[in-house]
Design goal:
Length: 182
């Protein structure tokens, strides 16, 4: 038997200028959640392709390859990064989660360093944590490779792991003098 197209979804965004949908959608309880090329989140009925909602965070960001899902006994949340922000949405209505970060948005810009910084892949949800890494440059002014975990409940930073030792910290004595960013 040959497969037939059941439905097609058009994000309504221009096809010119390299706009490509990179995201891997999630399907949960019959709803497909995805991201458009401009990082507009959307929910579709997975059986019919009917659009249930859209959320445009405004601005722009690098390509994003996926979303993250969190739930407990009482609530669920859909997360994704757009540029330097982590976005938290109510997956039923597509509205920002008001008590997460600042009205559903959390600035992920590291306080240390001034170099390039981006997040183009989804993080990992573990219990009530969102664990995120990021892409950075390799120059002497680049961000250090820090993995961070945020609360899925309110967006607070819970812990960070420095893949490079901090100056004077554990393991720093194994590096050549001046090799670590200060």
């Amino acid at each position: 038997e040959e497969l037939e197209v059941a439905w097609v979804y058009d994000s309504g965004e221009p096809r010119q200028g390299g706009s490509t949908m990179y995201t891997s959608p999630l399907i949960i309880d019959g709803v497909l959640y995805g991201l458009s090329p401009r990082l507009v989140a959307f929910a579709l009925d997975a059986a019919t392709g009917e659009e249930l909602w859209r959320h445009d965070p405004g601005g722009s960001g690098a390509a994003q390859r996926g979303l993250m899902w969190w739930q407990d006994d009482e609530q669920s949340r859909l997360f994704y990064t757009a540029g330097r922000e982590l976005i938290a949405l109510d997956p039923d209505m597509g509205r920002p989660v008001a008590d997460f970060g600042e009205n559903g948005r959390l600035d992920l810009t590291p306080s240390e360093g001034a170099g390039p910084f981006s997040i183009t892949v989804p993080g990992i949800i573990f219990e009530d944590l969102i664990v995120l890494g990021f892409s950075t440059g390799e120059g002497d002014r680049s961000q250090a490779g820090v993995i961070r975990a945020y609360s899925a409940i309110n967006g607070d930073l819970v812990w960070r792991f420095n893949s490079l030792p901090l100056v004077g910290g554990l393991g720093s004595e194994t590096w050549a003098e001046g090799a670590l960013n200060t």
